[in-house]
Design goal:
Blueprint (H helix, E strand, L loop, with lengths): L8 H10 L7 H7 L8 H15 L10 H21 L1 E3 L2 E5 H7 L5 H10 L3 E5 L5 E2 L6 E5 L6 H14 L21 H6 L3 H5 L14 H7 L3 H14 L3 E7 L5 E7 L7 E6 L2 E7 L2 H9 L6 H8 L15 E4 L2 E4 L7 E5 L3 H12 L2
Antiparallel strand pairs: 1-2, 2-5, 3-4, 3-5, 6-7, 7-8, 8-9, 9-12, 10-11
Length: about 350
């Protein structure tokens, strides 16, 4: 199975770029931002364009390896989010007290992160109490602006304020960029994806509300789009399985989507990176024996997975009482991990086999 840590840095950035929300369009943005005079269509569209530039070029990123370089980019964007969340708008810039910022932002050197933001046109400057520009080390405040388009910072301030208004529990123990509930992606994720729809409509992005056919997931699976849509139709529309999922934007970004029957362990847990789909397939106890006996019908990858089943030395220490022999295969009825196959879904036969196993009775 291909591991996410082996995905090249540019492919990780491509996934982030493909996951920038493109809906609503200009007319839809104008409608949902009614009542937010600073949230101009010009400023919000400019942010989408700016994010695409940030995610489109790995050459400017710094770090000892791809993991550090990618996370350095996320940390720089977190700095921008923090400035917008805790700063005050001053015409076309946002200004924040440096001491306040340092209480919240703990993602490395301010100067280093600001330099990354500056590569694509954002200007982060240190200000003395007099308002004069000074080096970061001597500054009492920081100012963030975007000379290319004066509408961008006011629009982003309205955007971040709307993100933070989705939920206000008064919980000061949580980081400022996360929700208290299990979300598809947290506050920072809304920002990194430019999900204006969620922010300005104050939509709670709970994991069990995930639509597995949403456009950003379709964009992520790329060349597997048709096969993914067909399988989702079988799992959700025909078999009535429930779905839950989330978007991970840290190093090796990906979507995680699970399908399950209520009250049962997930049958399928997908992890999806750019043009890459992997799955954890757990054979149910009630249909596992039949699937094993019919394993020649499935793809070679699944056949090999089934033939590798055996005791996983779990804490139950059943003395092999939970292991039964099914057509020469050791099938454990007591531990889900022993019935699990980890695989990359790469061929049409793989997709067809997953469908067949889900439909097994």
């Amino acid at each position: 199975m291909i591991l996410l840590r082996d995905v090249p840095l540019q492919a990780q950035l491509d996934l982030m770029r493909l996951n920038i929300c493109q809906e609503p369009g200009p007319s839809g943005l104008a409608a949902i931002c009614d009542g937010h005079p600073l949230a101009t269509v010009s400023g919000l569209m400019a942010f989408r364009t700016w994010l695409a530039r940030v995610y489109g070029d790995a050459g400017y990123l710094e770090g000892k390896d791809d993991h550090a370089r990618f996370n350095g980019m996320v940390d720089a964007l977190t700095l921008l989010y923090a400035c917008l969340a805790f700063g005050e708008l001053d015409y076309q810039a946002v200004v924040i007290d440096k001491a306040v910022l340092l209480q919240q932002y703990k993602k490395g050197s301010l100067a280093q992160r600001a330099r990354l933001l500056g590569v694509h046109g954002l200007v982060v400057e240190g200000l003395a109490s007099s308002g004069d520009k000074v080096p970061f080390g001597k500054a009492s405040r920081l100012a963030v602006s975007f000379p290319e388009n004066g509408d961008l910072i006011p629009a982003l301030k309205a955007f971040v304020d709307s993100i933070n208004s989705i939920e206000d529990t008064g919980d000061t123990e949580r980081p400022y960029y996360v929700f208290s509930f299990e979300s598809i992606y947290n506050k920072l994720g809304v920002f990194l994806k430019a999900d204006f729809g969620a922010a300005f409509t104050r939509t709670k992005l709970t994991r069990d509300s995930l639509d597995p056919r949403r456009t950003d997931i379709q964009a992520t699976v790329g060349q597997h789009r048709q096969a993914w849509s067909h399988l989702v139709g079988i799992l959700v529309d025909e078999l009535g399985l429930q779905c839950s999922g989330f978007f991970n934007y840290l190093s090796a970004p990906s979507w995680g989507v699970s399908f399950y029957r209520k009250g049962q362990r997930p049958l399928l847990i997908f992890t999806m990176a750019h043009n890459l789909v992997t799955v954890e397939l757990t054979l149910p106890v009630d249909t596992g024996e039949r699937i094993i006996r019919q394993r020649q019908r499935y793809s070679p990858t699944i056949q090999r997975g089934i033939e590798s089943f055996g005791c996983v030395q779990c804490p139950k220490q059943c003395g092999l009482e939970n292991i039964i022999d099914v057509d020469g295969i050791s099938f454990c009825t007591g531990r889900a991990e022993a019935r699990r196959i980890y695989m990359t879904v790469a061929t049409p036969e793989d997709w067809d086999s997953l469908e067949a196993i889900a439909e097994a009775r």
